[in-house]
Write a structure and sequence with these properties.
There is one protein chain. The protein has a single domain (5-312), classed as TIM Barrel. It contains twelve helices and ten strands. It has helices at 60-64, 75-78, 83-92, 105-110, 117-127, 150-159, 180-191, 202-205, 212-220, 249-264, 281-292, 303-312, and strands at residues 5-8, 28-31, 35-37, 70-73, 98-101, 137-140, 166-169, 195-200, 236-240, 270-274. A six-stranded parallel beta sheet has the order 3-10-9-8-7-6. The longest helix is centred in the C-terminal third of the chain and has 16 residues, at 249-264. The protein is globular. 35% of the residues are buried.
Length: 314
């Protein structure tokens, strides 16, 4: 079910930005496969389950990468890491692991995609050491980004190095009405092989907000229609539920067939799993792989589970 092997022919001469740290990736073979992950790689709530009980914060990424082959790099949306931190992240994961960092919010929310070239060059150079382990870079646009702003997005895309993969998430309701605005967005993304990110929060909003975690999640997450369209070769879905106690399989059942379809078409989907407090996110990802019938490392015992089993033997 891993699909076929393809060769990516990359054209470094098309890079617009002055960018010196982009690694040479000519004719690099890659296998179409499924990338599974959580919205973060560290959580004290995962100790004794995904992580060993004594797992240190500095070791969480390496233990996480033993079971997952991708992660949402949401930290980069709010703050830039130091160069040393970037190198430490690189050393913590195997070669086949793929980060999906977000562009910092200053590009999308503060500068609104205008006059960004200098900032963008610096940001890309900062993350350059990780590019061989980067699946795609995500641009999360604010709800205020409307159809009349698509020209800004097109101009921003022209600034991006063509050797990397990207995903775009929109939140303005007009992009979900299957009208001219959505068609224009999809055509723009298809023309550049950029993935339209689908965020499915139906299961989250199907539950009454009776806990602080649910209240917080429903206040922060968008509640929009789900349009599962592949505008690029690495379609991405972000699946958000309340918890494992409330019904969620009804909502992800269509994703099982969609992900299977994408894999059969030679695409490499990225699917990330959230719960309201993310305490059960690793278990949700495992359940999805079980129901999909996909052989993934997330199906193997987690570090904390193996530790508990070993201790039970004595």
């Amino acid at each position: 079910m891993l699909g076929r092997v393809y060769l990516s022919g990359l054209n470094l001469q098309r890079t617009v930005l002055l960018f010196v740290t982009l690694p040479v990736l000519y004719n690099k073979a890659f296998v179409c496969m499924l990338y599974i992950g959580c919205p973060q790689w560290s959580s004290n709530a995962w100790k004794g389950n995904l992580f060993s009980r004594q797992c240190k914060n500095a070791d969480m990424l390496s233990e996480y990468a033993q079971h997952f082959n991708s992660v949402e790099g949401n930290t980069s949306f709010y703050a830039d890491p130091s160069p040393d931190t970037v190198l430490r992240w690189d050393a913590s994961v195997p070669d086949e692991f793929k980060f999906t960092f977000k562009f910092h919010r200053r590009f999308s929310h503060e500068l609104q995609l205008t006059n960004v070239q200098h900032e963008l060059t610096n940001w890309l150079n900062l993350f350059g050491p990780l590019f061989e382990k980067t699946g795609q870079i995500m641009l999360q646009l604010p709800k205020a980004f409307a159809p009349q702003h698509l020209a800004k997005l097109a101009a921003f895309i022209e600034l991006l190095p063509k050797e990397l993969n990207y995903g775009v998430e929109v939140r303005h309701p007009d992009f979900f009405k299957k009208g001219e605005a959505e068609i224009a967005l999809n055509q723009l993304l298809m023309a550049h092989n950029i993935n339209r990110i689908a965020m499915d929060t139906r299961a989250l909003f199907a539950v009454k907000p009776t806990t602080e975690a649910l209240i917080d999640a429903q206040q922060k997450k968008p509640h929009l229609p789900v349009h599962a369209i592949a505008t690029g070769s690495q379609p991405m879905a972000r699946f958000v539920i309340a918890d494992l106690e409330n019904d969620y399989k009804t909502f992800y059942q269509p994703w099982l067939s969609k992900v299977t379809q994408w894999l059969d078409e030679g695409k490499s989907p990225y699917v990330f799993f959230h719960t309201a407090d993310n305490r059960e996110a690793p278990l949700l990802a495992r359940q999805f792989c079980q129901d999909l019938g996909y052989n993934h490392n997330v199906l193997n015992p987690f570090s904390g589970e193996k530790e508990a089993h070993q201790q039970a033997l004595f």
